[in-house]
């Protein structure tokens, strides 16, 4: 009897083991994709392809794409990533598969800087994200809202022109990104808070610029902890420590802004600004329409950083290219003198008549996109593209920088040639997300919410700076065109230039 019991127990154990092994094998076979993963580099043990990206990931990924193709797979630590590097590949992901890639992957920047993804940029695609987007479009970033604060842009740009004229009289060069950040922060401050953020240009505005650049740089890092979550707590690169410190500085600034704004609420009765309107949603009775104070701070962080740094970097690159190519600057001056003359400033209503200026802006968006790698997305479900299998929870990066320099799309892509956008073939190409040859703001559901504002600011501010001044490098200086990688593509060495007024003196008084 004892032998029989032992035999039965042994047989039962074998049966149970066979059952689980068989079930595991069947599930594995069912899960196994029938099509291969996209091609890509092998990478290293444990860390995968992370060490292959180097300090300039957009450049490294563009070189890899030449070897592995327009849709490329990389094992990044313990996670999957695909990279799209051509217009067709970008269209497949951001249009055909847009809904499946509508969320952002978890990352340290969203957690430690953007209030644990309570903002608009990193929030999951859902009701809260839609509410933040709707409020921003209706009251700040949409077409009508932009028209409503056109006068704010004109006044703040006037302040900047007068500061530049003063520098010219003292024979001092202007540091372009500092000037631009100061002016744009004040424009956005007027709309959000009904006041200028910086009364005078100085150490306070320079610190703000430094904080914006630090945020964009740190948020663009490929953080090992994002790709190997089990070791994230170790913070091997020290990135998360820096993010936490930076977040505290931003939180102090945003809290102070909101406190000062609340104290002056009585002055705006009947004329609410953007923050008044958003704050009204904090008291909403509907959970779907309710915003926490954290949501509001996170949204302000988005608007002040993305609203200043991305447009500022594009304008700075455009001016640098024109200093490198004086014939382009001369042609722009000739067009403006013919359309506007020299007795008044450029107005936004002039821009549709300035086809060469618009071509310069498009060419800068192409060659120097503000975000070289589109903000990452992640797949909700497994899918297929170009005959390749893409697993669920795969990160997606679209290499906008590579698309702009693709020789199969653009003739002589390394040259800065605005004239390419005046040809019959390219003149209808638009940077608003429908023409995948030129997607500086991304495309699809998660296209940059500030696309319209970004185009308006770049065209109007760049046009005004070109029309108002002659530009030259300081004596003895050479132009450095090196890039510094981050969420926004900065010039490694900020542009410093000497300006000389070229309009009638009265034009700078308005």
Automatic annotation (TrEMBL):
Chain residues that bind heme: 448
Recorded GO MF terms: flavonoid 3',5'-hydroxylase activity; heme binding; iron ion binding
Enzyme class: oxidoreductase
Needed co-factor(s): heme
Pfam families, alphabetized: p450
EC number(s) recorded for this UniProt protein: 1.14.14.81
Keywords of this entry: Heme, Iron, Membrane, Metal-binding, Monooxygenase, NADP, Oxidoreductase, Transmembrane, Transmembrane helix
Catalytic activity: a 3',5'-unsubstituted flavanone + 2 reduced [NADPH--hemoprotein reductase] + 2 O2 = a 3',5'-dihydroxyflavanone + 2 oxidized [NADPH--hemoprotein reductase] + 2 H2O + 2 H(+)
Residues spanning the membrane: 7-26
This protein's pathway: Pigment biosynthesis; anthocyanin biosynthesis
Keyword Phosphoprotein in record: no
Function: Catalyzes the 3'5'-hydroxylation of naringenin and eriodictyol to form 5,7,3,'4',5'-pentahydroxyflavanone and 3',5'-hydroxylation of dihydrokaempferol and dihydroquercetin to form dihydromyricetin.
Recorded family membership: Belongs to the cytochrome P450 family.
Name this protein carries in UniProt: flavonoid 3',5'-hydroxylase
């Amino acid at each position: 009897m004892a032998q029989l019991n032992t035999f039965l127990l042994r047989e039962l154990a074998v049966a149970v083991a066979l059952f689980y092994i068989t079930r595991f094998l069947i599930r594995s076979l069912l899960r196994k994709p029938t099509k291969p993963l996209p091609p890509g580099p092998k990478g290293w043990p444990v860390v995968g392809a992370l060490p292959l990206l180097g300090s300039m990931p957009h450049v490294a990924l563009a070189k890899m794409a030449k070897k592995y193709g327009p849709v490329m797979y990389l094992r990044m630590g313990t996670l999957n990533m695909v990279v799209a590097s051509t217009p067709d590949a970008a269209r497949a992901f951001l249009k055909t598969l847009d809904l499946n890639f509508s969320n952002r992957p978890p990352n340290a920047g969203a957690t430690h800087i953007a209030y644990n993804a309570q903002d608009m940029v990193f929030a999951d695609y859902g009701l809260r994200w839609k509410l933040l987007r709707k409020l921003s479009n209706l009251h700040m970033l949409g077409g009508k809202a932009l028209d409503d604060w056109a006068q704010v842009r004109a006044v703040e740009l006037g302040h900047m022109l007068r500061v530049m004229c003063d520098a010219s009289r003292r024979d001092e060069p202007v540091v372009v990104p500092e000037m631009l950040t100061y002016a744009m922060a004040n424009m956005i401050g007027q709309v959000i808070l009904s006041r200028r953020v910086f009364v005078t240009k100085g150490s306070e505005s320079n610190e703000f610029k430094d904080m914006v650049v630090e945020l964009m740089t740190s948020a663009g890092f490929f953080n090992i902890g994002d790709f190997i979550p089990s070791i994230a707590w170790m913070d091997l690169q020290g990135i998360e420590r820096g993010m936490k410190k930076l977040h505290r500085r931003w939180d102090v600034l945003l809290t102070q802004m909101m406190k000062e704004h609340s104290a002056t609420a009585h002055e705006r009765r009947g004329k609410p600004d953007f923050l008044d309107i958003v704050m009204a949603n904090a008291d909403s009775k509907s959970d779907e329409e309710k915003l926490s104070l954290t949501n509001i701070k996170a949204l302000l962080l988005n608007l002040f950083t993305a609203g200043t740094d991305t447009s500022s970097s594009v304008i700075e690159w455009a001016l640098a290219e024109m200093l490198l190519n004086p014939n382009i600057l001369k042609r722009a001056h000739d067009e403006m003198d013919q359309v506007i003359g020299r007795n008044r400033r450029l107005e936004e209503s002039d821009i549709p008549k300035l086809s060469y200026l618009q071509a310069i802006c498009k060419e800068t968006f192409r060659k120097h996109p503000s975000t070289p790698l589109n903000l990452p997305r992640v797949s909700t479900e497994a899918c297929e593209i170009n005959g390749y299998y893409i697993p669920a929870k795969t990160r997606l990066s679209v290499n906008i920088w590579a698309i702009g320099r693709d020789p199969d799309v653009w003739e002589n892509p390394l040259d800065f040639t605005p004239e390419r956008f005046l040809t019959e073939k390219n003149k209808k190409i638009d940077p608003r997300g429908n023409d995948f040859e030129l997607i500086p703001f991304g495309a699809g559901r998660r296209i940059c919410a500030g696309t319209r504002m970004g185009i308006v600011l770049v065209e109007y501010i760049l046009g005004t700076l070109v029309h108002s001044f002659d530009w030259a490098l300081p004596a003895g200086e050479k132009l450095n065109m090196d890039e510094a990688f981050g969420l926004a593509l900065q010039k490694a060495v900020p542009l410093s230039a000497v300006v000389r007024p070229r309009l009638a003196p009265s034009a700078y008084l308005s």
